């Protein structure tokens, strides 16, 4: 009796669920294959295009960088650079470090992270909770020997059974996106994609994804760099000169002062670049929250602004895909704090009707 009454209610609901992975092998098995590409409805209506954003905040370590972290470790293992109990050392703005800390815990490696002391406390706390040895260092340029990357290399060189994964110039990083992100976007759009845009830190996501989509579509899909203030890449792509556009940015993990080995081989594949000021990025953090219920960090918001700019360039009825790199949880004591926003002169960038979200 009970069974019969229930059957009509459950019939048919198993179809979508049947496509889920049944089981994956530990944390590392869960990296890649982020399930959703979210259509941003309001922005799609405004632009007359289909604006899609891949939900990387649903990656098991919470960000786009889980993919690169796993590929960097797998690459070191394949080259025989890491033996059981070894140490992974990296210089990172935080998210690669968090991905590496997860991978290291699941594989039994130690993890040492050098990061610029300008990054959010939330990322430092999380790294420590994941068992990483975090070493914040003064934020100095790459050509300074005290830059976090050089310190990471020197420390790894001083240890036995340790590797500096070198996310900026180790192309195992972009390979992760050639093998996973690109194919996932192609499958999730069914090939109906006209352009892809995202910001770059190492350049791995942009280069690897554009490389795959370009080859798969026989050159049809266009790639656009999205760049924050203080980076040299916007001008490099647009007029061939590596000059900074603007000064620093509130976005963390993106913007670059040089052409990394991950980006260099694919720079010529790009159709152009867009520059996004911080006032637009922060406004989009709040708009995504208010209009779409999405709680994402500033690089995700910058990517979404870039996607709307690309959509306007291309004209109506196009599909533009971008990345939601991580959640706002990693920056919330900054992004939602009035004092912090005022210190960056960005409190006035938030429209009146969105001010209610400034709660800290
Ligand atoms: N967004 C965030 C929040 C990041 O931490 C990073 C990487 N530091 C990126 C975007 C850029 O990714 P990639 O290194 O692949 O260019």
TrEMBL record:
<dbReference type="InterPro" id="IPR000634">
    <property type="entry name" value="Ser/Thr_deHydtase_PyrdxlP-BS"/>
</dbReference>
<keyword id="KW-0028">Amino-acid biosynthesis</keyword>
<keyword id="KW-0496">Mitochondrion</keyword>
<dbReference type="InterPro" id="IPR036052">
    <property type="entry name" value="TrpB-like_PALP_sf"/>
</dbReference>
<protein>
    <recommendedName>
        <fullName>Cysteine synthase 1</fullName>
        <ecNumber>2.5.1.47</ecNumber>
    </recommendedName>
</protein>
<dbReference type="GO" id="GO:0030170">
    <property type="term" value="F:pyridoxal phosphate binding"/>
</dbReference>
<dbReference type="Pfam" id="PF00291">
    <property type="entry name" value="PALP"/>
</dbReference>
<comment type="function">
    <text>Catalyzes the conversion of O-succinyl-L-serine into cysteine, the last step in the cysteine biosynthesis pathway. Can also use O-acetyl-L-serine.</text>
</comment>
<comment type="pathway">
    <text>Amino-acid biosynthesis; L-cysteine biosynthesis; L-cysteine from L-serine: step 2/2.</text>
</comment>
<keyword id="KW-0809">Transit peptide</keyword>
<dbReference type="GO" id="GO:0006535">
    <property type="term" value="P:cysteine biosynthetic process from serine"/>
</dbReference>
<dbReference type="InterPro" id="IPR001926">
    <property type="entry name" value="TrpB-like_PALP"/>
</dbReference>
<keyword id="KW-0663">Pyridoxal phosphate</keyword>
<dbReference type="InterPro" id="IPR001216">
    <property type="entry name" value="P-phosphate_BS"/>
</dbReference>
<keyword id="KW-0808">Transferase</keyword>
<comment type="similarity">
    <text>Belongs to the cysteine synthase/cystathionine beta-synthase family.</text>
</comment>
<dbReference type="GO" id="GO:0004124">
    <property type="term" value="F:cysteine synthase activity"/>
</dbReference>
<dbReference type="GO" id="GO:0005739">
    <property type="term" value="C:mitochondrion"/>
</dbReference>
<feature type="domain" description="Tryptophan synthase beta chain-like PALP">
    <location>
        <begin position="30"/>
        <end position="326"/>
    </location>
</feature>
<dbReference type="InterPro" id="IPR050214">
    <property type="entry name" value="Cys_Synth/Cystath_Beta-Synth"/>
</dbReference>
<keyword id="KW-0198">Cysteine biosynthesis</keyword>
